[in-house]
Write a structure and sequence with these properties.
The protein has 409 residues and is α+β, with helices and mostly antiparallel strands. It folds into two domains: 3-57 and 263-406, no CATH class; 64-233, no CATH class. The chain has helices at 3-12, 19-60, 77-85, 119-122, 138-141, 154-160, 200-205, 211-217, 237-248, 257-260, 262-300, 302-310, 315-351, 358-361, 372-398, 402-406; strands spanning 64-68, 90-104, 109-117, 132-135, 148-153, 167-178, 181-195, 206-210, 226-231, 252-256.
């Protein structure tokens, strides 16, 4: 062990008359640990929130949506679906019909977004078919006679106070012309099941029904509102959208999940950076404790420093002693804070200890996901800040004049 390191460790673990210095060193270690832990937990929270919301959104919506330039429904959707499916990088494609309607039960009413789907094809684009809470998908594949089977978000079902097998009335604004004017189109549907998409927006206002039934309800017979696409790489939407448009030719436009949710994820990223920087100031404050600790150490040990210099220790060796002291404080604090912060993120995420209002934040519990890259940045930054904090006190220690320090001893 280098003698400079041995001296540094001895000074940090001083006893008796220098016990106060050891106490200050312990406080500095705790300060660094708390700062690192707080930053890691904050980054884990924001990253987990962003990842969870993105996962939930992409579980219920497509990566890319294709529509006609004028916004009109297109009749050749089957041709478009088959063409898009053949492109490399495309995992699935499916037609969809969208529209708003009023749902009425014996206990209440609610406005909902209706989506007409082909269940087998929809399974290649979204995860709706695997998000069933009650009931089954089979009736949507083979509607049969009677009211049209539908899947409701479970919050919407609770709002309407209906369950599997109950019948609802659906009123569409796409009416039909009659001698007394335009009358709304009214049909009856039967609840085949409820869906839990994980996001309050979908659970409280979305309804899924067979494609043909939606086409009749919204006066789009033989047409589709959109063709939705799922990719192998959800982050390659820009390149894949360009390839799709080039293949389909003129008259088509696309939108993707990044464009539709760009403001949300930008806000989450800004919040993540702001919270990380703000809480990161705790580490800077802890570094000031390191400065105070080393300054006190230099004042307390100025005679020892003078003796070491008189015995032949170089100014560089004295500098290294106090730099090692500060670095040890920073390293121990960073290691403890990193371990506690990582463990806290794992426990908080595993047991969902922090519950939040689902109707406000879209999710029921705060997720925590600490990325190794984020953790590495925090740890390296903390070590660097702690190292920089040692420079001035170490420089002061190296400039102690032995003659002046020992004059009155």
């Amino acid at each position: 062990m280098p003698w400079e390191l041995s001296v540094a460790l001895r000074y940090l673990t001083a006893r008796r008359k220098q016990a106060f210095i050891s106490l200050i060193s312990g406080v500095a270690v705790v300060g660094v640990a708390v700062g690192v832990m707080a930053v890691l937990i904050a980054l884990g929270l924001m990253t987990g929130l962003q990842s969870e919301i993105r996962r939930k959104i992409l579980g219920s919506t497509a990566h890319i949506s294709i529509f006609q330039g004028r916004g009109d429904p297109f009749a050749n959707y089957e041709e478009v679906v088959n063409t898009v499916r053949s492109l490399p990088g495309v995992a699935g494609a499916a037609p969809a019909v969208y529209g708003k309607a009023l749902l009425t039960s014996t206990s209440g009413s609610a406005v909902a977004t209706l989506k007409g789907i082909v269940p087998r094809e929809e399974a290649t684009v979204t995860e709706v078919m695997t998000q069933l809470r009650e009931g089954e998908v089979e009736p949507l594949e083979h509607p049969g006679e009677g009211p049209t089977p539908v899947l409701l978000g479970h919050v919407l079902a609770d709002t309407l106070n209906v369950g599997v097998g109950d019948v609802l009335t659906v009123t569409s604004p796409k009416g039909r012309l009659s001698p007394v004017g335009i009358l709304p189109r009214v049909t009856r549907v039967r609840v085949a099941g409820t869906v839990d998409a994980g996001l309050y927006e979908f659970n409280s206002s979305w309804v899924y029904m067979p494609l043909e039934a939606a086409q009749r309800l919204f006066e789009q017979r033989g047409q589709a509102t959109l063709v939705e696409v799922r990719l192998d790489d959800m982050f390659a939407v820009r390149e894949e959208a360009a390839a799709i448009l080039e293949t389909l030719g003129h008259g088509y436009l696309t939108t993707d999940w990044i464009q539709m949710n760009g403001s949300l994820f930008s806000a989450l990223w800004i919040e993540k950076m702001a919270i990380g920087i703000t809480i990161g100031l705790i580490v800077v404050v802890a570094a000031l404790n390191i400065v105070a600790t080393l300054v006190l150490m230099v004042m307390e040990k100025h005679k020892d420093i003078a003796i070491l210099v008189s015995m032949g220790a170089s100014r560089g060796a004295i500098t290294r002693i106090f730099m090692l002291q500060g670095s040890i404080i920073g390293a121990v604090g960073t290691a403890v804070g990193g371990a506690v912060g990582w463990g806290a993120c794992e426990v908080l995420d595993r047991y969902k200890l922090i519950r939040i209002p689902e109707d406000v934040y879209q999710i029921a519990a705060v997720p925590f996901r600490l990325l190794p890259g984020d953790a590495a940045v925090v740890i390296v930054s903390a070590l660097l800040v702690c190292f920089v904090a040692t420079l001035h006190p170490a420089r002061v220690a190296s400039r102690v004049d032995p003659a002046e320090a020992l004059r009155y001893e």
